Amino acid sequence: MTEKEPEIAPKKLSAEDQARVDRYLHSGYNDVERKPFRPILLLVIIVGVLTLLSLLSLLIAQTKGVV
Q1: For residue 52, is it within any domain?
Q2: Which of 6, 22, 61, 62 is most exposed, with minimal Cβ within 10 Å?
Q3: Mind telling me which InterPro entries this protein's record contains (predicted)?
């Protein structure tokens, strides 16, 4: 074995248990259709919330005479 190859860990499940796990994972029990992730929308929401909080803090500062 060379230094770059990782060690393969020994199997922790028996063949029967692994077969049960594989059957469960392929059964689609928790398979849910999801909308595609849209990072641009997330960025717009974050910038919008940040802008609102900044404007709110400026308004509070002006009413208290800080700015």
Answers
A1: yes
A2: 6
A3: DUF3094 (IPR021444)
pLDDT the model gives residue 12: 87
Range of the domain at 43: 38-66
**Backbone dihedral angles phi then psi of residue 32, each to the nearest 5 degrees:** -125, 130
Q: How many domains does the chain have?
A: 1
Percent of the chain with pLDDT over 70: 94
Statement: residue 1 has pLDDT above 60? no
What lies within 8 Å, CB to CB, of 18 at 6+ separation is: 11
- Asked whether residue 32 is domain-assigned, the answer is no
Q: Which one has a higher pLDDT value, 3 or 25? A: 25
User: Does 28 fall in a domain?
Assistant: no
